[in-house]
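// run 5 | inverse folding | seed 20
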């Protein structure tokens, strides 16, 4: 590795803050000034330094990118989904960064989705939106809303060209192809149409970028005339809006981390006042799905892993049990169709689907063949249907789309994501890879699951290199997923592992509760226990183990770097939440107040303050030998500010000099990184090349 280039010098400008009698000095607070030319110059210099330090990996990056490109069917077409009189689908075209949104009219007697040959456009295709045309002249492009009105006439869509997740909402007339003069800036995700498509509901954010208002827009009128339908003033809560599958009701979801409330408006009476299904009660979460004369209620009222009930859609009141609470079986969602309900759940660390025929006690779970997999419902916009679309994958099975017949119980594979031959010309064969479920033992005796995938024949003598991925927050589960880019690692002998640590939702609500607030450190010690177990079990050795995580998983990376620097030879932290205490102390920052029920409120609670200070990565950098660290961030990220990893890397260099610390900032992107598919492949190739270099497989 090149060592001649020196890292940029981050000036120290001490800034003090005092909370609960504790004074903290932050020498790098100046980096939070995004509009300061000195900040931009410093980030640019860091990028140049990273480029110089990784220049020797240019050929490997090119190889990895080319391997992903060659294995991907670049011109492709998604399985069309029926809604009303049309089939809707997305096409990709070789050489183009973004998808093309299309539809085609349903033909007489047509019940199965039409098939495309080699991703070619369907005969009779109508292009609704071409992301490549919209993105012209912009370095970043993201589509927020894409919502066709119930009558199929209007398309509401929104665009973001900076990565800050603030979208401009527009309406397109699909009969003429013309844009209406209706235009609403600074909207958030979420839209809903009235029955007659005369009214469109949307969401905006407050000064802290918290989604707090639902608006009603009348098609053909100026945005200045729009009406606030619901405003949420409690800063712990955020709002969302959607149309039920039945297209009978507009749902306004009001949610904090632990409490929720749902309001409804009849879609046929869009100017009506919202009615509350059940008033919010602290600690009670519920979601609503409309089904005939009832609302289905998925809730955790005296049901830790949630139960399913219903109430009258005419006069909502008491909740009548439908599926009783079963500890260890986490009910996650319910989807209603005219004659069936489908419940998404998880048990023993695996996802599943349960079908409940209406008017029958003959409910059943759908069986799947592999020991490790992920399954869930795909897009199913039709309410009156006898089959549902689902998506399935595993660590060795590419993303697969099925239609499941709710009456005959037959599952038909419609499409499996093609994996084309790699550089050696050989087709992808899942039999050449194997997946495993292993278990680590945490410090407190808790068994922590680990999912692993590797090539068949990979040695178990500690000689194999390994990448260990983790997240562990917000009850988000890192269920097994397939990755084309990952094949380049596996084929070079790398073992890929996922640590299903507490704070995630893999083993139910209790698994989440044991990894948040004043139990957050379990997330970090679980991950270290998984790393130690992989070494003890012969999967790898500590000098052949790289850790990787993003966002809250980036907090995990920073915490384990402090907790067990000897356990890893390298750490990749993407958009990392490494200055958590500073951010959570500042209620003016985006999302801070809504996060207090996840991390605690260090402003008001000295115990929370002391606990967070004891683990937040930036506060706990010490003069030890850290593993090599690559931090990747984005300048326009509104969820985790770029300044957090920038400050962290600067402090690492000052307190623990001699380490190998790199910072890479995307100067025109947001939380998700580069927006185009080729750009995202290059970003992944950059990270994987760095990982292979650390593992001695470059």
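// decoded
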């Amino acid at each position: 590795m090149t060592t001649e280039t020196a890292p940029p010098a981050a000036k120290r400008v001490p800034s003090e803050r005092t909370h609960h009698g504790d004074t903290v000095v932050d020498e790098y607070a100046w980096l939070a000034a995004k509009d300061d030319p000195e900040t931009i110059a410093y980030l640019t210099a860091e990028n140049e330094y990273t480029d110089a330090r990784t220049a020797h990996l240019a050929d490997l990056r090119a190889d990895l990118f080319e391997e992903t490109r060659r294995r991907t069917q670049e011109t492709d077409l998604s399985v069309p989904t029926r809604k009303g009189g049309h089939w809707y689908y997305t096409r990709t075209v070789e050489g183009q960064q973004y998808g093309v949104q299309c539809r085609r009219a349903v033909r007489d007697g047509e019940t199965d989705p039409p098939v495309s040959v080699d991703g070619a456009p369907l005969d009779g295709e109508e292009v609704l939106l071409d992301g490549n045309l919209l993105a012209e002249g912009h370095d970043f492009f993201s589509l927020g809303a894409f919502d066709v009105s119930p009558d199929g006439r209007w398309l509401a869509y929104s665009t973001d060209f900076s990565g800050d997740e603030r979208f401009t909402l527009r309406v397109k007339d699909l009969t003429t192809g013309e844009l209406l003069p209706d235009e609403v800036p600074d909207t958030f995700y979420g839209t809903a149409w009235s029955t007659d498509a005369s009214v469109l509901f949307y969401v905006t954010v407050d000064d802290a970028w918290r989604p707090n208002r639902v608006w009603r827009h009348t098609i053909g009128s100026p945005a200045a005339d729009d009406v606030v339908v619901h405003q949420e003033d409690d800063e712990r809560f955020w709002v969302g809006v959607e149309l039920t599958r039945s297209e009978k009701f507009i749902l306004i979801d009001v949610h904090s981390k632990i409490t929720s409330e749902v309001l409804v408006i009849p879609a046929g009476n869009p100017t009506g006042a919202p009615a509350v299904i059940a008033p919010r009660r602290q600690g009670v979460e519920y979601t609503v799905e409309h089904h005939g004369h009832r609302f289905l209620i998925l809730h955790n009222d005296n049901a830790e892993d949630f139960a399913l009930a219903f109430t009258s859609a005419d006069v909502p009141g008491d909740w009548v049990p439908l599926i009783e609470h079963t500890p260890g079986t986490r009910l996650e969602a319910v989807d209603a169709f005219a004659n069936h309900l489908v419940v998404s759940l998880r048990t023993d660390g695996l996802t599943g689907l349960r079908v409940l025929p209406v008017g029958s006690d003959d409910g059943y779970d759908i069986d799947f063949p592999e020991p490790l997999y992920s399954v869930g419902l795909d897009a199913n916009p039709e309410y009156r249907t006898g089959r549902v679309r689902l998506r399935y994958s595993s660590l060795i099975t590419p993303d697969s789309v099925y239609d499941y017949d709710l009456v005959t119980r037959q599952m038909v594979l419609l499409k499996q994501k093609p994996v084309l031959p790699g550089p050696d010309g050989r087709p992808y064969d899942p039999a050449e890879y194997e997946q495993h479920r292993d278990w680590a033992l945490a410090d407190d005796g808790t068994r922590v699951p680990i999912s692993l995938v590797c090539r068949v024949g990979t040695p178990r003598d500690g000689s194999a290199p390994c990448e260990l991925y983790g997240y562990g927050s917000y009850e988000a589960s890192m269920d097994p997923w397939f990755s084309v880019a990952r094949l380049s690692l596996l084929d070079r002998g790398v073992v890929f592992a996922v640590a299903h640590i507490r704070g995630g939702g893999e083993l139910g609500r209790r698994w989440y509760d044991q990894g948040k607030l004043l139990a957050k450190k379990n997330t970090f010690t679980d991950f270290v226990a998984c790393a130690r177990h992989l070494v003890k079990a012969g999967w790898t050795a500590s000098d052949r183990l790289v850790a990787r995580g993003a966002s809250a998983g980036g907090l995990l990376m920073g915490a384990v770097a402090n907790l067990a620097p000897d356990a890893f030879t390298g750490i990749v932290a993407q958009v990392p939440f490494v200055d958590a205490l500073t951010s959570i102390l500042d209620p003016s920052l985006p999302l801070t107040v809504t996060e207090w029920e996840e991390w605690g409120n260090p402003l008001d609670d000295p115990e929370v303050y002391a606990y967070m200070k004891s683990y937040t990565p930036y506060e706990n950098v010490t003069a030890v030998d850290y593993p090599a660290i690559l931090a990747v961030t984005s300048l326009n990220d509104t969820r985790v500010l770029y300044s957090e990893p920038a400050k962290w890397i600067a402090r690492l260099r000052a307190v623990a000099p001699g380490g190998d610390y790199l910072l890479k900032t995307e100067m025109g992107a947001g939380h998700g990184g580069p927006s185009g598919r080729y750009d995202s492949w290059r970003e992944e190739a950059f990270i994987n090349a760095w990982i292979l270099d650390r593992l001695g497989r470059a």
